[in-house]
Specification:
The complex is a heterodimer of chains A (429) and B (164). Chain A is 36% helix and 18% strand. With 429 residues, chain A is of the alpha/beta class. The chains are: A alpha/beta (429), B alpha/beta (164).
């Protein structure tokens, strides 16, 4: 019997042959923590080692500051300081402070993520790194602290679902719309404990940003990891970023490619050529409808960004809709754009986007996770309706008593331009 | 070990944002303070009235969403005796194990009880007495039993390093 991608990844990381259902100790290639939850990890590590312990390998630990960057309160500032001091004491040099942006994206841009790597982090959307075939997973602080003792942690070898996607997206329709459709079809628990392999011609042609989008919300279906084998320009980019490890990146892709007779528990097929813009309606990601069917609903705030849709191409798409819509957002809608990283922000600046956004009435912020949580500037007051490209719209998530629709950057900007939920094809086509 | 308590019954896909609201993750850092906010955005009745030993009976995918360990800590600190769900979301499953919170996978109990019912869990026998019936539940997988026997993940790793 052949092996799936996740089985090959776990075999490399555990050094033994694995079967589905086995629980194995895997060597961790990178164990990360962010400002959210990071201080809990360092305090716990200090507590269990009486503050005398050394981490197993400072070069394999990274800290990212993304959820509250810059810090908005003394409490958060104190937690960030705890992390900086721990890193200094332990000789951990990979500290991506408040100027860098969203952790997973920063790790990718800095060449720290290779296909086949096993990566931990205190962010439940770590698994967007499956977009380059790394097995990255969110965990709690105990799992992180334990991994810092000896560089391992345990995992169950999961069954794998395969999703084959074919066809070209129509005008105004994007990977996010396929993702939203998928979340609705699978439901919040539809991938529980499963790995997922995405394949097919649509996936093979997709950009890194699209792969990140698709894999990021595997979490919203409770999947363990969604994996896409790097190819073409994505593989070239990864190898370039990996520097001296460039050849290793290419070797890993060969090593972890799934076998032709790999066992899949389910196979699903999607054709995107007839897909429409989709939205997750309040108050759950899997409450999915077409944007057309909810168009005309009034919104108070639009937010474009997040680890799911904060890449340059996402912002460029929003720019295109704004341009076609007359370079003005509705005065009744507060519109906020947040790039994922400083690299993305710098590219937006070079392209001349930022000034045009500002002139159009948009708030353009520094790179950060931004409105994934109510504990950030821009939180919604009770009774307000938001429209966002983030990945969760659970009740209370960005403000008690508020409600949020999730959609693509194009749909979100179309909504910002018209002031009510709008199918982007009404502006683009 | 036996636990007897009142049932708090919930549906499918309860996420960790409603188990421990995100706003408190920045303002509440002491474990002992977390219990008072448990389930605030799901069931204020629980937040106000739950007693030590009470038992949560849930549907599928309990604890989906954010990886915050506080979602397990707040229930542990509140004294929750056990969580019985049809299934658990995997990150929260690990966090509950790591916090020593007893978790049971069972699809039968949900149909036998309502909120307020008294039920008893016998962990040695793997039995739940609910609504006049006895429901069997499977023990933890062998691998997990090994971790639990060592006192959890951290003691297990320390033992393997000769630090315990």
């Amino acid at each position: 019997m052949g092996r799936t991608m996740i089985m090959k990844i776990m075999e490399r990381a555990s050094g033994k042959e694995v079967k589905i259902g086995d629980r194995v100790w895997c060597n961790i290639d990178l164990s990360t923590a962010r400002d959210f939850g990071g201080a809990n990890c360092t305090l716990q590590f200090d507590e269990i080692t009486d503050k005398k312990g050394r981490v197993w390998d400072p070069a394999k630990i990274a800290f990212t500051f993304d959820l509250q960057a810059p810090s908005h309160s003394e409490k958060v500032s104190a937690n960030q300081k705890i992390i900086r001091e721990f890193a200094k004491r332990q000789g951990i040099e990979k500290v991506f402070d408040i100027n860098w942006g969203i952790g997973q994206h920063v790790l990718l841009e800095n060449g720290l993520v290779k296909p086949g790597d096993v990566i931990l982090g205190t962010d439940s959307h770590m698994n967007l790194l499956g977009g380059v075939a790394a097995f990255a997973t969110g965990v709690g602080n105990t799992d992180i602290a334990a991994s810092w003792l000896n560089g391992t942690n345990w995992f169950r070898v999961p069954e794998t679902m395969r999703i084959e996607v074919t066809g070209e997206f129509g005008r105004g329709v994007y990977m996010r719309d396929l993702l939203t459709l998928l979340v609705g079809d699978m439901g919040a628990g539809g991938m529980d404990f499963l790995a997922v392999e995405f394949a097919g011609d649509t996936i093979e042609r997709s950009s890194l940003a699209e792969r990140i989008t698709l894999c990021s919300m595997v979490t919203e279906m409770s999947g363990k990891i969604g994996l896409i084998l790097p190819n073409g320009p994505v593989l070239d980019w990864l190898a370039l970023r990996a520097g001296a490890n460039g050849e290793l990146v290419r070797q890993r892709v060969r090593d972890i490619a799934p076998d032709d007779d790999a066992p899949y528990c389910e196979v699903h097929r999607y054709d995107v050529s007839k897909l429409e813009p989709m939205a997750s309606c309040p108050d759950a990601p899997d409450n999915v409808k077409t944007v057309r069917s909810i168009s005309g609903e009034a919104v108070d705030q639009v937010h474009i960004g997040s680890c799911t849709n904060g890449r340059f191409s996402d912002i460029a798409t929003a720019f295109e809709v704004l341009e076609k819509g007359g370079f003005k957002v509705s005065p009744t809608v507060r519109t906020i754009i947040t790039p994922a990283t400083r690299e993305v922000m710098a590219q937006c600046a070079r392209e001349g986007f930022i000034e045009r956004f500002l002139d159009a009435g948009v708030v353009f912020t520094n790179p950060t996770c931004s409105l994934c949580t109510a504990e950030h500037y821009g939180a919604l007051p009770s009774g307000d309706v938001g429209c966002s490209t983030t990945n969760r719209n659970f009740i209370g998530k960005v403000g008690k008593g508020s409600h949020t629709y999730l959609m693509s950057p194009a749909s979100a900007m179309a909504t910002a331009v018209r002031g009510v939920i709008t199918d982007p094809r009404d502006i683009l086509c | 070990m036996k636990v007897k308590g009142r049932v708090w019954k919930y549906g499918d896909d309860v996420n960790t944002d409603v188990i421990f609201p995100g706003k408190y993750t920045y303002t509440v850092s002491e474990r002992a303070d977390m219990g008072q906010y448990a389930l605030e955005d799901l069931d204020p009745g629980f937040t106000k009235n739950a007693k030590p030993g009470d038992i949560i009976v849930a549907g599928k995918n309990w604890g989906c969403g954010s990886s915050r360990e506080q979602a397990a800590i707040c229930l542990k600190e509140r004294g929750v005796g056990a969580i019985i769900a049809k299934s658990f979301a995997r990150i929260h499953y690990r966090n509950c194990l790591n916090e020593g919170l007893p978790i049971i996978i069972s699809s039968e109990v949900q149909g036998l009880v309502e909120s307020g019912s008294e039920i008893e869990v016998d962990f040695e026998k793997g039995e739940i007495s609910a609504g006049g019936q006895v429901v069997k539940f499977p023990p933890y997988p062998e691998f997990v039993q090994g971790l639990v026997a060592d006192g959890g993940l951290i003691p297990h790793v320390k033992k393997s390093l000769g630090l315990a």
